[in-house]
Amino acid sequence: MQAKIKVRDQKILLVDDLDYNRQLLRHNLTALFSHNDLKYRSFSYFQAHNASSALLTFSQQSPDLVFLDIELPDGSGIDLLKRFKQQKPDCFVVMVSGVSTLENVKASIAAGAASFIVKPFSADKIMAVLRQFERFYDKQHKTSL
Predict the structure, then answer these.
(1) Taking the model in full, what pTM does it have?
(2) In angstroms, how far is the first alpha carbon of the chain from the final one?
(3) Contact predicate 97/77, CB 8 Å
(4) Residue 104's domain spans which residues?
């Protein structure tokens, strides 16, 4: 019988200028956690509607997983991504955008994004990202033991 290791709740930061998009993403995440065979099911959610509030929340909460819109009213999500990765290099950042140009995707990956989801997002795309996050988190957690 394998012993379960008590792992603290992971923290998720949702950054989008539209409240509707943040709520939709949160509801999708909650449904996926409760209906799928995911290892990690306990998360704390934080939200930000612009770059300045995202920076403040990121600094205060140090999230493990971030869903980040590229176009924010007061700045670029790609610039924000760079700042997040400077503060916490092991943060798993997923860019979410309705503008899926090759340039945006390349710039996001170059800046350290772990994945890129195009709006409107589907549960399958989010699930794929959550599985990717689990593998990433397990790898990070094992190397830090």
Answers:
(1) 0.89
(2) 21
(3) yes
(4) 13-144
Residue 128, pLDDT above cutoff 60: yes
What's the total number of domains in the chain?
A: 1
Residue 7 forms part of a structural domain: no
- Distance CA(15)–CA(134), nearest Å, equals 20
Tell me the per-residue pLDDT of 9-43, one tens digit each, with 9 for 90 and over: 789 999 999 999 999 999 999 888 877 677 766 78
Using the Cα atoms of residue 79, residue 80, residue 81 and residue 82 in order, give the sign of their dihedral: positive
Q: Report the CATH number at residue 61.
A: 3.40.50.2300
Q: Which residue has tokens 């306990």?
A: 42
Can you list the alpha helix ranges (DSSP code H) found in 12-122?
A: 19-35, 51-61, 77-87, 102-110
> Tokens 């996926």 — which residue?
32
Residues 93-113 pLDDT 10s = 999 998 878 999 999 999 999
